[in-house]
Design goal:
The protein is mainly alpha-helical. It has one domain. Helix content is 77%, strand content 0%. It contains 13 helices and no strands. It is globular and about 60 Å long. The chain starts with a helix and ends with a helix.
């Protein structure tokens, strides 16, 4: 699960979908009802997401410091001409829009954990979104490398839709950036930076709201910490090589993968539901 989260959080293939598939494949072969999900499983999902958050923070540490420094300076001087200061503002705006879209879907998204066949259909849709974004991007003559207000709004909304397992967060935000005329590297960079507040919020807030801390003490902490560490290490390596990949190659490979994986998982879990 740690390896799956580390790979799929930053590749445009939906980490939430792959965690759903992995846990449910295990349940099928272990003869455990898919309708059952323990508090420990929910907490484990949060922790492996925290592992990949740490990977983002380490990889983009210089970018984050530059954005924070420029943002604070802009607040003091009221001069927002610096692109890094604007980026900080856009990340805040994108996060607010993400929450506005995601929160109404929250309960439905949680129930999809028990419907992996539907998650497969959503992953199938993600594949077509990736392919179409590449088609549109190829017809944009002059691609931009700076985020503007309109693009930040669209990418924030796209991240909100990705609250549904199967709608890849990185896939939908990067694809939206391509639709808006960004080059792939800039779209991917902003997508990863935009993920930080949302993952941080979910990791910090959810345990205090949903979990019984007496129950948390009984969890298998060895497995949880190992999974978190593995997701962080794999996630860091994934970001490093994905940024190199996306600067040279298209998202088509991931689009075809999502379509094929969506078809397979939908059929498999429909049979074994």
């Amino acid at each position: 699960m740690g390896i799956v989260q580390g790979l799929s959080e930053f590749l445009p293939i939906s980490s939430s979908a792959h965690l759903v598939f992995t846990s449910n494949f295990y349940k099928v072969f272990a003869n455990v009802p898919i309708q059952e999900q323990s508090s420990q499983e929910v907490f484990f999902d949060i922790m492996v997401h925290l592992g990949t958050l740490i990977a983002v923070l380490i990889f983009f540490r210089k970018d984050i410091m530059n954005i924070l420094s420029a943002f604070v300076h802009a607040l003091k001087t009221k001069d927002w001409s610096d692109n890094e200061a604007k980026l900080g503002l856009y990340i805040i705006l994108g996060t607010v829009l993400t929450l506005a879209v995601a929160l109404p879907f929250h309960d439905f998204a949680e129930r999809l954990v028990f419907s992996p066949s539907i998650v497969g259909v959503l992953l199938f849709i993600t594949g077509f979104v990736l392919l179409y974004s590449e088609y549109v991007s190829k017809h944009v003559a002059a691609k931009k490398d700076n985020i503007d207000l309109k693009t930040s709004i669209l990418m924030g909304l796209a991240q909100g839709l990705a609250a549904l397992p199967g709608f890849s967060r990185s896939g939908w935000t990067i694809a939206t950036g391509l639709f808006a005329g960004l080059d792939r590297t800039s779209a991917a960079r902003y997508s990863f930076l935009l993920s930080i507040p949302i993952i941080l919020g979910a990791s910090m807030v959810y345990p205090f709201v949903k979990l019984d801390f007496h129950e948390v003490a009984t969890f298998n902490w060895t497995a949880i910490l190992v999974g978190t560490l593995v997701s962080g290490v794999v996630g860091y390596l994934c970001i490093k090589y994905f940024m190199k990949f996306i600067s040279k190659f298209s998202l088509a490979f991931f689009g075809y993968y999502c379509i094929l994986a969506g078809i397979f998982t939908s059929i498999f879990f429909y049979i074994y539901k």
